[in-house]
Amino acid sequence: MRTARLWKRLLGVESAVVEGVFIEGEGASTVFVARVRPSSSDRSRCGRCLKRSPLYDRGEGPRRWRTLDLGQNMAYLESDVPRVTCSVHGVTTAHVPWARHGARHTTSFEDLCGWLCAQAPGSSVAELLRVSWRTTTAIVERVVSDLAGRTDLLEGLRRIGIDEIAHRKGHRYITCVVDHDTGRLVWAREGRNSDTLDQFFNDLGDERAGLLTHVSADGAEWIHAVVKRRAPQALICLDPFHIMQWVTKALDGVRRKLWRTLQASGHGSEIKGARWALLKNPLELNVDQRICVAVIAKTNRPLYRAYLLKEQMRAAIAVKGEEGRALLGGWVQWAKRSRLPEFKKLASTIERFRPYIWNTMDEGLSNARSEATNTHLRVLTRRSYGFHSPEAFIAMAMLTRGGLCPELPGRG
At what angle do helices 240-264 and 354-363 cross, to 10 degrees? Predict the structure, then answer.
């Protein structure tokens, strides 16, 4: 094998010409520098659109790109980068086949960094690759942007889930859209309002929005309003988890009020420790919790009535068709007559969302995929000790949950 071809293989620059390799520094600071140039087919192309363009000038002299290490030593590619006049992008730097436009690292180095960031904390990746954590963040954003530009994540959407997640303190949220059929995160933007969701439908387009059949969401009315306006044919399904969350919150409100009343009279110990016994699934109760519920059934009828309402709702949303609708209607009437203010208020909420709950019963669609994505993103946030910008958070989310993680160099 010729020496030039060997260096091309080692440096991962098969589409470039290696003019020479030299060593700089001594000891631990030794680095390899390879002088390269684009092959004839890659010369005089716009760095953005790769269109052949006339030469503008010779640029600002030699430029270096960090590439994959050679053994224990860092390695760089060095080349002149002229500027060209593109009919679309104007005067811009010429394309180099070994790096993305505007990057100071080679594509193979950035792909390795992106893959590692999907598996480990950015600080560990930064230490391993001998770069700063800000550099790893910028690389992830660039890799995700590049891969997203090669594929249309919004193509073929039929059933989607919409939810929001806080990316830092101060009520700062990201709105996420998940494809139920693939489980992938397909869209994410900063914000939690109708304007943010309108951006999704603008990106999707009216034609593809007309192909949506199901949209799962929580009780956020700004989501429902935008979906009804932009995709009126889609069935909105209210997430069963959030329905039960409303019911358990009402049950806990009844328990708290009763506990405060009993505590004022010196009898608060009668329902001490009853919270989890009341909130858990009856099939998962241990012996002590079963005894606790039995005692409440005999001594605290209002609290036990709230507990039965909770279990009745659990049974109602598990049933499909006309029977499920009848059970839900019976629950609403029972809640209204329960003489429990928390459940009377909840009955009005259930009535307002009844059509969406019916869709959930008939279609069996929940927001579980969105919640699973949110759980994964919270783990990412804890692992990274937060993100300095929403763009960095979104890039990491798309890298790990959007199918935009690059392959390891040389494995494709």
Answer: 120
Q: How far is CA 343 from CA 8, 243, 252, 331, in A?
A: 72, 13, 11, 10
The one-letter amino acid at 137: T
According to DSSP, the residues that pair with 23 across neighbouring strands are 32
Q: How far apart are CA 20 and CA 7, in angstroms?
A: 9
Q: Is 34 exposed, middle or buried (0-12, 13-18, 19+ CB in 10 A)?
A: buried
∠ CA 348-352-358, rounded to 5°: 115
pLDDT digits (tens, 9 = 90+) for 351-404: 999 999 999 998 889 999 999 999 999 999 888 888 888 999 999 999 999 999
Choose among 396, 371, 326: nearest CA to 133: 396
Spatial CB neighbours of 278, under 8 Å, sequence gap ≥ 6: 251, 252, 255, 293, 296, 303, 306, 307, 310
Bridge partners for 216 per DSSP: 161, 237
Task: List C-alpha distances in Å: 176 to 123, 265, 364, 367.
Answer: 26, 49, 21, 12
**203-234 per-position pLDDT tens digit:** 999 999 999 999 999 999 999 999 999 999 99
Contacts of 265 (CB under 8 A, 6+ apart): none
Question: Which residues lie closer than 8 Å to 304 by C-beta, 6 or more apart?
Answer: 293, 296, 297
Of 41, 21, 40, nearest to 32 (Cα)?
21
* pLDDT tens-digit series, residues 52-87: 999 999 888 899 999 999 988 999 999 999 999 999
Helices 341-352 and 321-336 sit at what angle, rounded to 10 degrees?
140
Q: How many CB atoms lie within 10 A of CB 394?
A: 23
Sign for the pseudo-dihedral over CA of 318, 324, 329, 330: negative
- Interhelix angle 107-119/133-150, rounded to 10 degrees, is 100
**Residues 76-95 as b or e (16 or more Cβ within 10 Å = b):** bbbbbbebbebeeeeebbbb
Q: Report the Cα–Cα distance between both ends of the chain, in Å, rounded.
A: 23
SS3 174: strand
C-alpha distances in Å from residue 60, one per residue of 57, 63, 83, 160: 9, 8, 9, 49
